[in-house]
Amino acid sequence: MQGRIVSRDLLESGYSVFMADLYKSRVNDLLKKYSANEQAFFTYVDLRDIEMTINIIEKSGSEVVINCAEGDWNVNVYQACLRTKTHCLDLGSLDIPMSKEQLAMDLAFKKIKRTAITGCGSMPGIGNVMLRHAAKKFDSIDSIDMGFAWNSNKKKFVVPFSIESVLEEFTLPAPLMKGGRLMHKKPLATFMVQRYKSIGYQKSFLVDHPEVWTFYHYLKDKGVKNIRFFAGFPYHSLETILSLIELGFMNKKPVKMLKGVEIIPIEFLTQMLKRLRFPRDYKERENLWVDITGRKARKPKKILMECLVPPLEGWEDAGCNIDTGFSASIMAKMIKEEELTQRGSFAPEGVVPEKKFFHELRKKKMVVYENGTVIN
Fold first, then answer.
1. 174-178 and 181-185 as β-strands: parallel, antiparallel, unpaired?
2. How many CB atoms lie within 10 A of CB 110?
3. pLDDT tier for residue 54 given thresholds of 50, 70 and 90
4. pLDDT tens digits for range 6-45
5. Which domains, and CATH codes, for the chain?
6. Using CA atoms, how far apart are residues 91 and 71, in angstroms rounded to an integer?
């Protein structure tokens, strides 16, 4: 889903894109429209095979690799990009240990004079850059809460982002920083009701997200002690997702079916949901937010950063997922056009120029607020 959004945006911006995936069906229309003028290309890839991935990157001749696969394979792609001396971005890692492993490759990417950024979507991604903007206005930071909330005009279930990633958010222990110590809680034991601008009231809960660690990594010198990440889902989507979990679709182990055929429930669910179409005139909105408290000149200070994502004409079939795909596309363009020139391995809050990034978001109708005032 995200790879298609990124590819379409880059192609419409005049760039050449070499797409690689396990499946071709979702990009056939892009290939039909753009391959005739040698702007779009495609081949199959299995990221478990690093040598195969290396060969494809070399064949493509691409300067920037944008990894939109599940977060399980981010380290494989980083290793392939180190071997091919290619810039690399992804949408965020499976867990905090993997994020640490990626940022630990900083020296390796510096040696080949390339940039790697993990977490280049919405959250992580836009939220990280909002933090980078706000953190400069504090002498010290005590606490950071962050998250996303979304809703739709029709109360019908539509796949939110990657169903595998979503089910992981609902089930994996949620990390949080409390008093400078990393702790974990069961997501569904942390429900609370919050009100979000343009969204309204929603049930939110703590989920597994790498920002809990990357925010601490970049801001520990400012004394940050408490960090939490919340996800907010509309009731109709929340109930369907909880039912899928209860029915066992989160299972990643093979299950024997008739005549000895084996399926992996989460992979079967992913493929089945690709057939699910958006209802007619369906629209989504999303609020990405970061709430920071600390001190400036010895006085208490608080900044709430928000990015509001409205429905975008012509992109209805992507819903509010446009914020993830567009963010990755923008950061990739910044590297390609040498507007982002730092070399090494980073999360977005460590390297992305916020003013330019926010300006590009506004071109996509995404508005960034600081304490209720538009800043882009």
1. antiparallel
2. 14
3. very high
4. 999 999 999 999 999 998 988 999 999 999 989 999 999 9
5. 2-122+327-350 (3.40.50.720), 126-318 (3.30.360.10)
6. 7
